[in-house]
Amino acid sequence: MVLACGLPFLMSAPAGADTETETDTATAVLKPGDRGASVTLLQQRLHDRGYYHGKINGVYDEQTMFAIWALQKSNRLRPNGAVGPEVWKALEEPAGDRPMVPNGGANRVEIDLRDQLLTVYRHNRPVLVSHISSGSQVPYCLNGHCGNAITPVGDFRVTRRAPGWTTGPLGPMYNSLYFVGGVAIHGATRVPAWPASHGCVRLPLAASKRLYELVGVGDRVYVRGKIYKP
């Protein structure tokens, strides 16, 4: 460790000094609310893998937790937000890509209702992987609008884009990408670990900003999966 410029010799660190090495940083056990160099490294590696699109600020915040959930689900780990040896290993040796529609086109969006994951492919490479919350499967009535909270399964294309915040009869939506009728992929402030929407596909705000940059009108959207059971 370099302690100061121009010192020709190594000094023993005083009691309580930060002696964390890069190896230590990459094996730290982390949880939401933690701060420091280990979290910074975690965020950077998540970003490099396409999971994290927020600020790399060394704070294990909600957007970081969403990225960890996505990584854990992609690697068949329990999505609990806890960072330990399994998560660090997944970042170093990720599970191989398992596209649902390998012949669906070089540029596409895949939505996995079973695992509650969204993956964006560009040139047949996954460039964004995000946790989502899809339709709750529960009938609803809100502001005079009633229906079944079901996310449709099938092959679609993005038909319309709505930038920024918009407010519909069922609530606010951010950077909406409509792919069938009034059903859209959109950012939301509430993206729980279970299906909770009225039928749209919710994703974290940071991921929705990047998604909106990547996906345009006419891009293919494939929705697959059975009714989600946690």
Automatic annotation (TrEMBL):
InterPro entries with a match to the protein in the record: LD-transpeptidase, LD_TPept_cat_dom, Peptidoglycan-bd-like, PGBD-like_sf, PGBDSf, Transpep_catalytic_dom
Gene3D superfamilies xrefs: L,D-transpeptidase catalytic domain-like (2.40.440.10), PGBD-like superfamily/PGBD (1.10.101.10)
One of the Pfam families matching this protein, by short name: PG_binding_1
Gene Ontology CC annotations of this record: extracellular region
Location of the active site: 186 (proton donor/acceptor), 200 (nucleophile)
L,D-TPase catalytic domain boundaries: 107-224
Swiss-Prot/TrEMBL GO biological process terms: cell wall organization; peptidoglycan-protein cross-linking; regulation of cell shape
GO MF annotation list: peptidoglycan L,D-transpeptidase activity; transferase activity
Position of the signal peptide: 1-17
Keyword field: Cell shape, Cell wall biogenesis/degradation, Lipoprotein, Peptidoglycan synthesis, Signal, Transferase
Pathway this chain belongs to: Cell wall biogenesis; peptidoglycan biosynthesis
Signal in keyword set: yes
PANTHER family, per the entry: L,D-TRANSPEPTIDASE (PTHR30582), L,D-TRANSPEPTIDASE YCIB-RELATED (PTHR30582:SF2)
The name this protein goes by in its record: Lipoprotein-anchoring transpeptidase ErfK/SrfK
UniProt source species: Nonomuraea polychroma
Lineage: Bacteria, Bacillati, Actinomycetota, Actinomycetes, Streptosporangiales
